[in-house]
Write a structure and sequence with these properties.
The structure holds 2 protein chains of 2 kinds. Chain A is an all-beta fold. Helices cover 2% and strands 36% of the residues of chain A. Chain A has one domain: Pectate Lyase C-like, CATH 2.160.20. Chain B has 2 domains: 97 residues, Urease, subunit C, domain 1, CATH 2.30.40.10; 390 residues, Metal-dependent hydrolases (TIM Barrel), CATH 3.20.20.140. In chain B, the strands form 6 sheets. In chain B, strands 1, 2, 3, 4, 5, 21, 22, 23 and 24 form a 9-stranded mixed β-sheet that branches. Chain B has a 5-stranded parallel β-sheet with strand order 6-9-10-25-26. A 5-stranded parallel β-sheet of chain B has the order 11-12-13-16-20, sandwiched between helices. In chain B, strand 23 and strand 24 form a beta hairpin. The longest helix of chain B has 16 residues. The chains are: A mainly beta, B alpha/beta.
């Protein structure tokens, strides 16, 4: 079954809607928040069903004020044909999310598996831990075809993040494992990283990293064994 | 409102009532005789239910700068939502509960009084603000004395009169309820990166030892006739070999000789034998004998397996813990008064050390005379207070203890290091009521609490089970939620849900003493202090519902 969801109007405040591609028949009555008001999904969105044997949700229109799309999803597919709001694919465990437009902050926060592809730009804190948690992203893959903001993959423990454009400061800070690739430019990279690998086109190397062959190892402040590698920029 | 509790099975150790069917009458927040009650407006049918006084938590860090710093340090803990705001306020937190959650959770499990045991006097204004935000329960705060420069000075001089004046002045400023001492001298030594390792070691920079500090403060408390005397967190806490220090501390109280002159809190945390983490053992058996024959009282400090956040004024201990746990750490220096530290920790059943901690506190619960020990987790250091029903069920049933060891896979090291598994003792419900109600009330000197005598406060918990014929398996579930909790004569909990949101009282002690003799010393301190003498402390009118206890 494919479900196409369109917003009925422009939202003046944020909508918190944990839309996931399971129990598609019950999607209409899904409880969402418009600001602090609790209402059902169908009151805010037009929902159309198509029987085609797939497990797929297509979000058509502007979803830039809709938060928590695909939160904790385990299987199936979500395609956002526009922009998406904060916390897209947070706590995700499997399945696939494709965003044709741009994304706000916290893409794939603490995700454990699955795949997120963003064809536009992403905000800050891609694949990060939530406040106070000891681990960020633990598995899966995030691909951003545009640029991303600051704090990419903080405390990341596993999985892969690929940014095809540029990234901001603090890529892979306090990283514990996994791999981050930024094909473009980044600011300061890998502070307090313990393990894992950061590949980057161009960046500032902190003084607590030492050159070892063609890579940099650190962060020495925490006796880390992380690796920073300078790669060729994409054409 | 006049309430009648009909046909309840009453347990009240203060009147030697053990499971008798009785009726109780409540009027104007007090327990009254049937003849005085007049027209009954509400009848609670307690047929087949157990009626006991409201529980009293003698040691739980429920308010003040420490728990607040802990909350901001662990935002992830607040993701756990206990109840959303509707009739009541929103309650959150798995271990570090928000203020409303603290009040509600206590009430739901039948507790109506809780004591915040460590507040730096300079921050007592914060403590009272937070206590005022905790609904339902009655509360009080104990100001910290153990590392105050003036305490050291008067202890070194052996000047009990000046110490009395100082204690009276500080309790008045903090609107506190008694004397709390944390690692006497050790926190001062921590300002130089050190600790004191024996109660007879000199405190750096002063001519006093921890033993002298303890003795002088105990003498002052006894002479001032404080309702709750000295509440101590011993030196050398949390390290192998600490049992010896605890034994020495108990001997100091024996010299004073006055009943209840010393309360050794979370006794489990300083009752280890051995000389390293590899051969750590439980000193509970020897210490229990010593406690039973001396004037001291204790509380358990039970460890609960799982995540928690430790927080104590014992700065050096928290640093040692941070080195072990390698997680987050907050350190705090409170001018010349005290210090503090916060470290999140996980107690693992498979870890031999944590298993010994878990078993040691249960040993105390089983071996110490129920008139001398109180159930506690040293919230949040050992675990959340919401686990009290779990602790009680383990104390009441050997079978449950054995199941717990099997289910949680508790390290078999406890067979060698502790005597828990060989103990056949099972506490009766009567003993449990002592350990959670009448004993803490007696230790705290709260005459109208922990009892169902005529004239006492109508703080009552009604549990949905018959204490005379309860099966082991039902214990935990029966104790977790009350059928009714009545606080100051109002029904606040019905069938485990909060039905009315009221404010409890804050107790503080008014001590009469000659302040003039320490005027010079105080002026000297305030010449250099961050707060002027006139602005220091809390005024009574700033507290929501103050209740003065005069001595």
């Amino acid at each position: 079954m494919t479900v196409i969801i369109r917003p009925k109007r422009e939202f003046e405040v944020c909508v918190e809607a944990e839309i996931v591609p399971t129990n598609l028949n019950e999607l209409k009555s899904l409880k969402v928040y418009l600001g602090k008001q609790e209402i059902s999904l169908e009151e805010l969105f037009e929902i159309e069903y198509f029987e085609d044997g797939e497990e797929k949700i297509i979000l058509r229109g502007d979803f830039s004020k809709v938060k928590w799309i695909g939160k904790g999803m385990k299987k199936g597919e979500i395609i956002v044909e526009g922009n998406a709001g904060m916390h897209l694919g947070a706590f995700m465990e499997g399945g696939k999310i494709i965003v044709k437009g741009n994304c706000d902050d916290w893409v794939g926060g603490m995700m454990k598996g699955g795949e997120i592809i963003i064809e536009g730009n992403a905000g800050n804190r891609v694949g990060c831990n939530y406040w106070g948690e000891s681990k960020g992203m633990e598995g899966g893959k995030i691909i951003v075809k545009g640029n991303a903001g600051n704090y990419i993959g903080e405390k990341m423990k596993g999985g892969e993040i690929i940014i095809e454009g540029n990234a901001g400061d603090f890529v892979g800070s306090e990283m514990l494992g996994g791999c981050i690739t930024v094909f473009g430019k980044a600011g300061y990279v890998g502070w307090d990283m313990k393990k894992g690998e950061i590949r980057v086109g161009e960046c500032e190397i902190l003084p607590s990293f030492v050159k070892d062959g063609d890579v940099f190892k650190g962060d020495l402040n925490v006796k880390g064994e992380g690796i920073i590698k300078i790669i060729k920029k994409l054409a | 409102m006049t309430i009648m509790i009909k046909n309840g099975i009453v347990v009240d150790p203060t009147q030697n009532i053990d499971g008798e069917k009785m009726d109780l009458f409540i009027k104007n927040g007090k327990l009254v005789e049937e003849s005085e009650a007049g027209k009954v407006e509400k009848v609670i049918d307690a047929n087949g239910m157990t009626v006991v006084p409201g529980g009293i938590d003698i040691h739980a860090h429920i308010a003040g700068p420490k728990i607040n710093a802990g909350r901001s340090m662990r935002p992830e803990d607040l993701k756990y939502v206990r109840s959303k705001s509707n009739k009541t306020r929103c309650a959150m937190g798995k271990v570090l509960l928000t203020c409303p959650a603290i009040g509600y959770e206590y009430a739901k499990m039948g507790y109506t009084t809780a004591i915040e045991p460590a507040t730096p006097t300079i921050y007592s204004i914060h403590t009272h603000e937070e206590l005022d935000s905790i609904p339902i329960v009655d509360k009080a705060a104990l100001p910290l004395f153990g590392n105050w420069h003036l305490t050291f000075k008067f202890a070194a001089e052996g000047d009990v009169e000046k110490m009395k004046a100082f204690v009276a002045w500080a309790i008045d400023k903090a609107k506190g309820y008694g004397i709390k001492i944390v690692n006497p001298g050790g926190v001062e030594a921590w300002m130089y990166g050190k600790n004191v390792h024996s109660i007879h070691e000199l405190i750096p920079g002063f001519e006093a030892t921890p033993a002298e500090v303890l003795t002088t403060l105990m003498k002052a408390a006894v002479e001032l006739n404080l309702p709750h005397k000295v509440h101590v967190h011993c030196n050398n806490l949390g390290v192998p070999g600490s049992a010896e220090t605890t034994a020495e501390t108990i001997k100091l109280a024996e010299k004073i000789g006055k009943e209840n002159c010393l309360h050794i809190t979370h006794v489990q945390f300083n009752s280890y034998t051995g000389d390293s983490w590899k051969n750590i053992g439980s000193g509970a058996e020897e210490l229990s004998k010593l406690i039973n024959s001396s004037p001291v009282t204790v509380d358990m400090g039970q460890v609960i397996f799982g995540h928690t956040t430790t927080m104590t004024a014992d700065g050096p201990f928290e640093f040692a813990l941070f080195k072990l746990a390698k997680t987050k750490w907050i350190n705090k220096d409170v001018e010349i008064e005290t210090g503090g530290g916060i470290v999140p920790i996980t107690y693992r059943a498979k870890s031999p050390v944590n298993a010994v901690q878990w078993a040691t506190s249960l040993e105390f619960g089983l071996l110490v005379d129920p008139d001398k020990i109180v159930v506690s987790t040293d919230y949040p250091n050992g675990g959340p207070f919401v686990e009290y029903p779990y602790i009680i069920s383990l104390l009441m049933s050997k079978k449950l203890r054995e199941n717990e060891v099997k289910e949680k896979n508790v390290s078999n090291y406890i067979e060698r290091a502790t005597s828990l598994l060989s103990l056949d003792i099972e506490r009766s419900f009567y003993d449990i009521v002592k350990m959670t109600r009448s004993t803490p009330a007696k230790i705290l000197g709260l005459k109208n609490k922990g009892t169902l005598r005529i004239g006492a406060d109508a703080d009552i918990a009604i549990y949905p089970f018959n204490c005379n014929e309860v099966r082991d398996e039902e214990l935990l579930k029966s104790l977790e939620r009350t059928a009714y909790t009545i606080k100051s004569g109002e029904i606040v909990v019905k069938d485990g849900e909060i039905v009315s949101d009221i404010w409890g009282k804050t107790f503080w002690v008014k001590v009469n003493s000659e302040r003039e003799i320490i005027e010079e010393e105080l002026n000297d301190v305030f010449k250099y202090y961050t707060v002027s003498k006139n602005n220091y402390g809390v005024k009574e009118e700033w507290i929501r519902k103050p209740e003065v206890v005069k001595v």
